[in-house]
Amino acid sequence: MSLKPERIAAAARARQVALLGLLTARADAIGEALARTHGMVAWDRHKAIGKVQRGLWALRERRFHGLGGPPARVCERKDQPLESLLIVSALLRQGRRVHLEVEAGASAVVPELLAELRDELSREQAGEALTIGAAGEAAPDEARDWERVGVTPARPRVAAVHADADRELAAYALALSGLRRGGADPRRIVQAFVAGPLERLERHLHRLWVGAAFGPPDDPEMFAGPVEPALAEVYRVALAAWSAVPGARVLCPGGQLERPGDPRTYLAPALLRAPPIEPPPAHAGAIGPLVVLHPCEPATLDAALAACRARGDVIQPLGPEAWRQQVGTPPMAPLQPLALGRLPPGLPEPRPT
Fold first, then answer.
1. Considering the chain, what is the average pLDDT of its residues?
2. Has residue 111 been placed in a domain?
3. Is 337 left (phi over 0), alpha (psi -120 to 50) or beta?
4. How far is residue 62's CA from residue 129's CA, in Å, rounded to a whole number?
5. Residues 120 and 254 both lie in one domain
6. What span, in angstroms and rounded, lies between the C-alpha atoms of 318 and 192?
7. Is 46 exposed, middle or buried (0-12, 13-18, 19+ CB in 10 A)?
8. Does the residue 352 lie in any domain?
9. How far apart are CA 121 and CA 140, in angstroms?
10. Which of 22, 211, 28, 214 lies closest to 117, judged by CA?
11. How many angstroms separate the CA atoms of 71 and 74, rounded?
């Protein structure tokens, strides 16, 4: 007998507190797992877990109208840990059946939490509402034609620095995004179109690039941790491609960091200045702590951003509030500490330059 949406929604709502309790009780273990599988340092782990906790609390208070809808498939992605948990929870609250796919190499945290939620749903005679695939396993025949709801693969963003933007604030924003997770954050900034003077911005960036701390994920003073060994070659190729752009200038050379006694792979951040080119190099968005500054005149910034949008790039504006609203891109989560006046560990403190 097929499950009615009302039963699924009621069961999901009744067990949501239990899911929140699991997430809270296992926060330390989840953090250790993210450090082990993704090299995430302490501040980054706390941020990822806290975001899910806040989302689940908000979902707990939400009221859904018009229950039901087609069954859905959701994917827990390797490079976007924990992001599927909120989507699955919301779909169940809507009274929809859900199948969770798990990318090969993805964290096991969400499948394990949802397996316990499924057991809880079974006590409400709604266990069939949620199915969970093994890592790297294709969806079963029944679910292959279900609507794909998420997680949408993230992609690198393009920064736009307004001529009136505070140069120090812009530098910290570029560091927070471009260097996070050793350059392995899928929403990292790789290219930054900069209107107006460059000299002061470059001085701030150079200080941050040289001073950012990369090291073991269990060291709470680190800004970013190790990356998968295979990414070092991808990074090297991307760095070489950008360095070969006519007129490019290397401001910080990047490369691979050596930590005595630590066999893991750490990448040194690279910073370049290069003229805007269309199209960008083939490896423009490759993984790694690499940011390329594109100087442009204030009058040509909008045209440069239009070309980026035509390629499907997401624009991250850095500048006056009215202009950011005009550009229309929502603020990036990694930049929120700046708005609150807090910096993660491992970045040099602000100072006049």
1. 89
2. yes
3. alpha
4. 20
5. no
6. 10
7. middle
8. no
9. 21
10. 22
11. 10
Name the residue with tokens 């929870």. 89
Domain that holds residue 283: 157-339
pLDDT tens, position by position, 91-119: 999 999 999 999 999 999 999 999 999 98
Question: First CA to last CA across the chain, in angstroms?
Answer: 70
Q: Are residues 170 and 316 in the same domain?
A: yes
Q: Does pTM surpass 0.85?
A: yes
CATH number of 309's domain: 3.40.309.10
314-318/290-296 β-pairing: unpaired
Report the distance separating Cα 52 and Cα 111, nearest Å.
Answer: 15
CB 125 within 8 Å of CB 11: yes
Contacts for 289 with CB less than 8 Å, ≥ 6 apart: 178, 179, 182, 183, 224, 235, 254, 267, 268, 269, 270
Last residue of a domain, one of 124, 150, 176: 150
Distance between CA atoms of residues 18 and 336, nearest Å: 29
**pLDDT tens by residue, 182-238:** 999 999 999 999 999 999 999 999 999 999 999 999 999 999 999 999 899 999 999
CA 19 to chain centre: 23
Domain match, 167 and 207 both = yes
88: its two tokens: 């699955």
- The first and second tokens of residue 85, run together, are 């948990």
Tokens of residue 162, six digits: 């307004």
How far apart CA 80 and CA 75 sit, in angstroms, is 10
State whether 106 and 246 are in the same domain.
no
